[in-house]
Please model this.
Amino acid sequence: MIRARTVIVAFSLAALAAGGPAVAQSFWPFGGKHKERAESPAREEAFPNIPYADWSDAEPPYRVYPGDELEITIPSAPELNKTGVIQPDGRLALPLIGPVMVADRTLPELEATLSNAYAGQLLRPQVLVGVKTAQPLKVFVGGEVDKPGVYDMPGDINALQAIIQAGGFRTTAKRKSVVILRRGVDGRAMMRTVDLLKGSTRGGMDLAPLRRFDIVYVPRSDVAEANLFIQQYFRDLSPIDFGFSYALNGRTN
Model:
């Protein structure tokens, strides 16, 4: 389990760095309490346990993101009202105070941040923020799928639909242990596994509805892992020739 989690987090960081906007790397911190103990002290030192928050289906507040168009209103100074788009670096240029980092904040947090920023220029400013246009919701799909990558959510979709968008399962996929990573209400990462094989064999598939920036990771099947191990450690890395030969009438074949 420790190894699987390490692989999952490695994928999530790579997906955020390569597939999504660059600013996303700093907008999804992993943190929280420890869920399990490591297998041994030595293994814990080499592969520290990844802390995850308890899974919750509670809807987290909306956080603004690069590409969102915001309406900034200051009732006491209407000449400073502005409609602007958050830049790829997460900042928004505002009159008097210049660029301000606004991405990955809820609207109440952003209103407090901007009110603070304007406090040096205005007397007791009250800043109101609204989202005029939001960027398409995105999910990250990786692992044993045909086309790993970042995909727009065309409305409400579930994990199976996201995997279909990514070209479907590979034959090496472990469909009964698909991992969902999500940021919780308090900003900590949550993890759960869903069985997407169960519905096709016994009924009652857990389709796992997705939310913005969820990560769907499909691990390898046990058979595929075994084949990979044999390939890497016996065929690719071993100096011994595992080819077979036999002698027939004194001639080696």
